[in-house]
Amino acid sequence: MTSPSHEQIIADTRRWVERAVIGLNLCPFAKAVYMKEQVRFVVSDATTPEELLQDLINELEKLAESSAEIIDTTLLIHPFVLQDFLDYNDFLDVADEVLEERDLAGELQIASMHPQYQFADTDINDIENYTNRAPYPTLHILREASVDKAVAAFPEAEQIFEKNIETMKNLGYDGWDKLWEK
What is the domain partition of the chain in residue ranges? Predict the structure, then answer.
């Protein structure tokens, strides 16, 4: 079996952003930056956590050095490493350490998406886990200032998580599957 091309990986991820993240309004802040083409989609060819860490550092630096009007957020998609969610989850600690080491904590943050995403205290098959289930393991690098601005403009932003769980429960597994039909 051949690996998907970078173009296919990005197309799959864009479809997920359009149908799930924006389509289900899982992130009410996503549509504006997506429509303005301020989302950078990057595919990492890393096959080891060490290689992925270097790609992450490169993307953190690129985002920090770029204007928010050009790149507001980055999706670092890494389909060839950290396929196991627990390994991926452990890597998030390393990613946060890099933010601290590079004095980027408070400027950038990393959100997580994974095909096997599982919130603490849930069963692997609970529908609420699907709010963060992307087609490939993905590190979402966000600007703190953009998050703060979006939260300030969105009433009751702290309720997004609960609303997303409700959305997923109402959608159900069949509804989730229908999202991906052509």
Answer: 11-177
